[in-house]
Amino acid sequence: MTELTSQYYNTNNRIHPLKFAMWIAMASITMMFGAFTSAYVVRQAAGNWLEFALPNIFFVSTAVLLLSSVALHASYRSFIAEKEKLYKPLLVLSLILGIGFIVLQYQGWLELFSIGVDLKGNPAGSFLYVITGVHILHLIGGIVALIIGILNAYTLKFKVTPKRKINFELTLHYWHFVDLLWVYLLIFLYLSR
Asked: C-alpha distances in angstroms, 82 versus 45, 55, 78, 158?
């Protein structure tokens, strides 16, 4: 194996260093959201907690985000199978759906605000906006990675290289992670009403 190839392929059954670093970062993010949800439960039990129903648009946005994940996974499979004409539009579709999720989340916030759930009022609203807002910040990191992937897809000559494969895998794993994180948060927020 050449030095370049061995740098990106696992020659002795160890995880790639970039993947390992990403998994450590995802574990840290998971712990942060675990702390948020724990604090939510403790504060809710203290009383003076506003009860409200989550707007249905949050469930629609969840479906959009999951479709984005499916599109990205299909794009990755097409990339590996060297189906350039399929992988590129699926990559763009994943980005569009990811941005759609953010737009729908914002509309959900507007619906909450219209019924009196705001950031400065009751702690229930404050927790909801902080938890969903911090999740969107992490999702924006994934959107940046998707944009870079799209720029590479349309500006570089198509070729499946070890470096491009690992970069795509990192984006894919992170995107699936933020999707699963949102599903957890939505279930938590729904059940803790």
From this structure: 54, 42, 6, 8
